[in-house]
Amino acid sequence: MVELKHIKIACSSCRLSELCLPRGLDQTEMRRLDDLVTRKRPLHRGDHLYRQGDRFNALYAARVGSLRGYTATADGVEQTVGFYLPGELIGLDGLEHDRHSCSVVALDTTAVCELPFANFTELCAQLPSLQRQMLRLVGKEITADHEILLTLGTRNAEERLATFLLSLSKRFGDRGLSATDFRLSMSRRDIADYLGIAVETISRQLSNFQKQGILDINHREVRILDMERLRCIIQTCPSVQPMERKA
Amino acid sequence: MVELKHIKIACSSCRLSELCLPRGLDQTEMRRLDDLVTRKRPLHRGDHLYRQGDRFNALYAARVGSLRGYTATADGVEQTVGFYLPGELIGLDGLEHDRHSCSVVALDTTAVCELPFANFTELCAQLPSLQRQMLRLVGKEITADHEILLTLGTRNAEERLATFLLSLSKRFGDRGLSATDFRLSMSRRDIADYLGIAVETISRQLSNFQKQGILDINHREVRILDMERLRCIIQTCPSVQPMERKA
DNA sequence: CGCCGCTTTGAAGGCCTTCAATTGATGTGG
DNA sequence: CCACATCAATTGAAGGCCTTCAAAGCGGCG
């Protein structure tokens, strides 16, 4: 049997190439990227891709499934810093100190592409398009972090949850999946640890949304019924939420 | 009179080179970096380095002074996403869409080095050390964002403020300045917009710290009197803060 | 089937926000 | 030089949102 770790991946045949690192590369360039990429053994729910403190020596791209990144303090308090969907780049938290500053765990059965960092940077130096796309994905991570910072810093529980659901919806849509019907791969606790609110509050707000006919949710299956109203909530839409915050 | 925009900077003679991009470069490499760097006309308090939506075409390194980065929503709600001290890289928020996703404003009289992005990436491709250090600073930004995310997601007002003061203290120390005596270049409102709490709460918590003898503050001059106690607060030190949060 | 963990729902309480007013610092014009 | 206006910061009081504690549903899985 072939060693899974060394199975070669063809970025050219990957449906996610337009979201992921290969974007903008021509055929020959893509082949050189293919030469670097290996597929790791699939992760099962609960398996860690890496842990806080592990040596950093590769970047990863989610391929199928989903993952959760989180930091933990010495006291065991956890903050989820992001969820990763197929096509998204994982591992940038290791760039600063050559050690990962957060842990990444699979939320369901998950496959990732692995790029040995040393070889990858070398290739970036040779392929300007790859370098540019790499930095674009870096920028995406930073922008996403700023977005969630804005959410945690200025929004109440209802708005945070609406922001989260809309973000997921958009990302599923970008991947060719339904933007209105999807399955949450994360638990209520994961969402709570991401949005900085208690699990019970998540539960209550979801119930509210359901009562208001904004969405239909049982267990982890979500159907968004009124996307417009959801958007309205995070804009603190004056017609619905007259409350506003002075600048 | 010489056009200020084109005055050349010597990274080699800059006290901040060990924190900034030149770190790890040899003499000849540093000279090539020098060739790219220009000094922009100094900014005064309130001047913007760039604004949300501006085209992204350069990275900046703070040189003297300090700046504040923030995003604003359509309703005018602001979230400060970071403060920049000398030696820190500014502008990464523009990487994703070639437009800046946040604004950066000077908090006092400030000078920055400007690196035209196209030329800079080209040089990165030629100098592995520069590429590595660039990515290290990128990682620093991401790690810092995760840190503040953790703060906003899990800590109460007292802990947030302690975290903020300790972070500033460390950064001043890293720059060879006093880690216990410094001047806040940002207003109480700026701090509030960063930590996601009301100005009044900032004011009250500062008064508390003063009453407890943890620090001495008048106006913007800070003296940390009991660094250990400050650290204790963010670790929700059991001997002082018996309250704890379940994992 | 029956345990166990996740989720939901209820009730009480606390931290922080909001509103309001005062104080202090800064700067401008008479 | 001082009065006055303006803005930042402080302090007080009331109220609300969310947390915490508690317990009951509800599915999943051995």
Provide a descriptive summary of the structure in words:
Two copies of one chain form a homodimer. Residues 1-5 and 238-247 of chain A have low confidence and may be disordered. In chain A, the strands form three sheets. A four-stranded antiparallel sheet of chain A has the order 1-8-3-6. Chain A has a four-stranded antiparallel sheet with strand order 2-7-4-5. In chain A, a hairpin with a 2-residue loop joins strand 10 and strand 11. In chain A, helix 2 (117-126) packs across helix 3. Chain A has helices at residues 27-36, 117-126, 128-154, 157-174, 188-195, 199-211, 227-234, and strands spanning 38-39, 48-50, 58-64, 67-72, 78-84, 89-90, 103-106, 111-116, 181-183, 215-218, 221-224. Chain A is globular and about 55 Å long. By secondary structure, chain A is of the alpha+beta class. The longest helix of chain A has 27 residues, at 128-154. At the A-B interface, strand 5, helix 2, helix 3 and helix 5 of A face strand 5, helix 2, helix 3 and helix 5 of B. Chain B binds a DNA duplex (30 and 30 nucleotides) through residues 156-157, 187-189, 197-204, 206-207, 219, 246.
Instruction: Give me the secondary-structure category of chain A.
Output: alpha+beta
Name the pair of protein chains with the most residues at their interface, and give those residue counts: A-B, 52 and 52 residues
> What is the count of β-strands of chain A?
11
Query: What share of the residues of chain A lie within helices?
Result: 25-40%
Q: Report strand % of chain A.
A: 15-25%
List the helices and strands of chain A in order: HEEEEEEEEHHHEHHEEH
| Overall 3D form of chain A | globular
> Please, how many helices of chain A?
7
Low-confidence stretches of chain A: 1-5, 238-247
For the largest beta-sheet of chain A, the strand count, sense and barrel status come to: 4 strands, antiparallel
Report Rg of chain A: 19 Å
| Multimer state | homodimer
The overall pLDDT of chain A, averaged over residues, is 90
End-to-end C-alpha gap of chain A: 63 Å
Placed side by side, the strands forming the largest sheet of chain A appear as 1-8-3-6
